[in-house]
Amino acid sequence: MADILADADFELYRKLIYDESGIHFSATNRSILESRLRERLRDKKLDSLRGYYELLLKDKEELKVLLDSVTTNLTRFFRNQAHFDALERYVIPELAKIRGPSADRKLRFWSAGCSTGEEPYTVAMLFAETLPAGWTPEIVASDISLKSLMVAKEGFYADSRIQGIPDDYLARHFEKVPGGYQIKDQVKRTVRFDYHNLKNDSGLRNVDVVMCRNVLIYFDEAAQKATIERFWDAMAPQSFLFIGHSESLFGMNTRFEFVKTEWACFYRKNT
Ligand SMILES: C[S@@+](CC[C@H](N)C(=O)[O-])C[C@H]1O[C@@H](n2cnc3c(N)ncnc32)[C@H](O)[C@@H]1O
Q1: C-beta 120 within 6 A of ligand 1
Q2: pLDDT mean over 150-162
């Protein structure tokens, strides 16, 4: 592969990746795309970018591998604690009030862009500790990165990755194993991991809480707006949406209502 990605190739690949995933490569992160493509060509023993492009058009599995390789999967347990405080102190009591005593007592939660599982497992532990008696959590966690989903499903985290978990949660919800910690089955059972591309309809409906944090930053505005619209369709009347603290729906003209609480800001589908 030539040292530098020619402009025409950059455009070709950036369009393909955007069309397939919403992930937008700007000129400033062109070198990241370059290095990922270099790795893929090496792996496939190919020496031409055009040849690899032809392969991607035919081979959907390889396309998944490329998309996986251009994702950023950085995450951690209890990332942005304020969101979990708001979930526990505002959203859960509010849902209990809205759904009422005779309502279906399932709490449907979707971690969209769950990476290696720290976010949905944080929620699963929080639900295990704080859901009112009689409520059953149903947590769906999805991502476009197959490699991340494999780690998530395994539920093993090296010692260096468990910072942020309160000691009592760690003691109750993890097993100490050589080199790290294994999430206990009773927590794991409450999370269903799925491969899902946010470009498509998830098929989920009546979700009470969607958490999609630090994912939309990789999309351009059109892809962000389309994703937010799909969340709307997946969500129940009177439900809640959390996005990353550096992300915003400001100026996007969505139907969500902005909610500011003493813990954190998020959005409500107020219908
Ligand atoms: C930086 S991680 C955020 C993980 C977690 N939500 C958090 O805030 O810690 C972003 C995740 O979004 C996923 N992602 C990016 N584009 C996606 C798409 N089109 N569909 C589904 N997941 C996507 C990436 O694979 C990655 O795991």
Answers
A1: no
A2: 97
List the domains of the chain with CATH numbers: 7-69 (1.10.155), 81-269 (3.40.50.150)
- Kindly state if the Cβ of 199 falls inside 6 Å of ligand 1: yes
pTM: 0.96
Q: Ligand 1 center to residue 73 CA distance, Å?
A: 6
Q: How far apart are the first and last CA of the chain?
A: 54
Q: Are strands 180-183 and 174-177 parallel, antiparallel or unpaired?
A: antiparallel
133 CA distance to ligand 1 middle (Å): 32
> Rounded mean pLDDT of the chain?
95
Q: 116 CA to middle of ligand 1, Å?
A: 9
Nearest protein CA to atom 11 of ligand 1, as residue: 113
Q: What is the pLDDT of residue 102?
A: 62
Query: In this predicted structure, what is the pLDDT of residue 19?
Result: 97
Q: Is 56 in the pocket of ligand 1 (CB under 6 A)?
A: no
pLDDT digits (tens, 9 = 90+) for 92-123: 999 999 988 766 689 999 999 999 999 999 99
Q: What is the spatial order of strands in the sheet that 180-183 belongs to? A: 156-158, 180-183, 174-177
> Is the pLDDT assigned to residue 3 strictly greater than 90?
no
The answer, yes or no, to whether any atom of ligand 1 lies below 6 A from the CB of 23, is yes
Phi-psi domain of 265 (left: phi exceeds 0; alpha: psi -120 through 50; beta: other): beta
Nearest to 113 by CA among 72, 79, 85, 153: 72
pLDDT score, position 44? 96
